[in-house]
Write a structure and sequence with these properties.
Pathway: Pyrimidine metabolism; UMP biosynthesis via de novo pathway; (S)-dihydroorotate from bicarbonate: step 3/3
CATH class: Alpha Beta
GO molecular function, one term: zinc ion binding
Number of helices: 11
Largest sheet: 8 strands, parallel
Protein name: Dihydroorotase
Function: Catalyzes the reversible cyclization of carbamoyl aspartate to dihydroorotate.
Number of domains: 1
CATH topology: TIM Barrel
CATH architecture: Alpha-Beta Barrel
Bound molecules: (4S)-2,6-dioxohexahydropyrimidine-4-carboxylic acid, zinc ion
CATH superfamily: Metal-dependent hydrolases
Enzyme class: hydrolase
Strand order of the largest sheet: 2-3-4-5-6-7-8-9
Distance between the termini: 26 Å
Helix content: 25-40%
Length: 347
């Protein structure tokens, strides 16, 4: 029997589209999403409203007139960010949120925040204006084990900032631990994105039986108990949890290297993978909430009006294993199981 589910068109609340040849190569793979929060960690980063508007225009040009994905831009918070520029960019409809990278936490985060007191003024202005703050939630203290960096971040940074800045709406991006799930589930004015890959892999996928660089991302996947906690949160129906793929393409040579970059490129097959995960959890009826309703509600936006259909067929859906990007290739995330759910997009 053919199974199918019809959903409001999903949104991706955390996406890396990059720039230049890579942007041209990857943009179309997210085109079945209605909206996407676009990460600002370019080189150099997107720090001003004017830069965000210019980047948005480059994305629109790469998408072309036929693709309907709406890029929702973010600013990269630095210790010298001008609160007035943030407020103006938000009031002009250029940005939907601001992204905080602790300096050194991940790809292109060197211009991020070292001293959180230095951004207090911007955060207070954002709280007043209702502008969400998206956090990369990991401490950078070299004394903290990489697998503990998310939990340490909650205690040392996230909770103190939230207490000091009442009303600040915070998204804990790409949570990877039960600590993250518990913190979000126990608080208000907070949401969390969960990636596709963190619902599928644990740290064994990266390290057991050989090192697999295409599963390396940040925050790094944790042990199985954490993956299971993320799956429970994603299918729970709790509106604080929503999809942010963190699809993060890198050229293969930069991943397959003595010092490989962090990032999984999941845009092409994300919806097929998620349908399988939700089916396995007996929660296909919650897939629409996770991918199309909860995030929009958090950001104060209406759900998309149109719909896509996911159909489970007997033959697997065909996805490329690699895509070309200029002179490079990019490896598509391999979930390790066949994908029988096909995306049928009437658009
Ligand atoms: O795996 C990741 N890749 N995590 C991040 O935080 C950044 C991203 C990227 O930009 O490559
Ligand atoms: Zn990211």
């Amino acid at each position: 029997m053919t199974k199918s589910v019809t959903l409001r068109r999903p949104d991706d609340w955390h996406l890396h589209l990059r720039d230049g040849a890579m942007l041209q190569a990857v943009a179309s793979f997210s085109s079945h999403f209605g909206r996407a929060i676009i990460m600002p960690n370019l080189v150099p980063p997107v720090v001003t409203g004017a830069q965000a508007a210019a980047y948005r225009d480059r994305i629109r040009a790469a998408l072309g007139p036929k693709m309907t994905l709406r890029p929702l831009m973010t600013l990269y918070l630095t210790e010298t960010t001008d609160p007035a520029d943030v407020l103006a960019a938000h009031a002009a409809g250029i940005i939907a949120a601001v992204k905080l990278y602790p300096a050194g936490a991940t790809t292109n985060s060197a211009s991020g925040v070292r001293d959180f007191d230095k951004v207090r003024g911007v955060l207070e202005a954002m709280a007043q204006a209702g502008i969400p703050l998206c956090f990369h939630g990991e401490v950078t203290d070299p004394a903290v084990d990489i697998f503990d960096r998310e939990a340490a971040f909650i205690d040392r940074v996230l909770d103190p900032i939230r207490r000091a800045t009442p009303g600040l709406r915070v998204v804990m991006e790409h949570i990877t631990t039960s600590d993250g799930v518990d913190y979000v589930a126990g608080n208000d004015d907070i949401g969390a994105t969960i990636t596709t890959h963190h619902l599928v892999i644990n740290r064994n996928h990266i390290l057991a039986g050989g090192i697999r660089p295409h599963y390396y991302c940040l925050p790094v996947a944790k042990r199985e108990t954490h993956r299971l906690a993320l799956r429970r949160a994603a299918v729970s129906g709790d509106a604080r949890f929503f999809l942010g793929t963190d699809s993060a393409p890198h050229p293969d040579h930069a991943k397959e290297s003595a010092c490989g970059c962090a990032g999984c490129f999941t845009a092409p097959n994300t919806m097929s993978i998620l349908a399988q995960v939700f089916e396995d959890e007996g929660a296909l009826d919650r897939l629409e909430g996770f991918t199309a309703l909860n995030g929009a509600a958090f950001y104060g936006m209406k759900p998309n009006q149109d719909r896509i259909r996911l159909v489970r067929r007997d033959t697997p859906a065909a996805y490329p294993t690699h895509i070309p990007a200029g002179d490079e290739t990019v490896t598509v995330f391999d979930p390790g199981f066949p994908l029988y759910w096909h995306v049928e997009d009437p658009a």
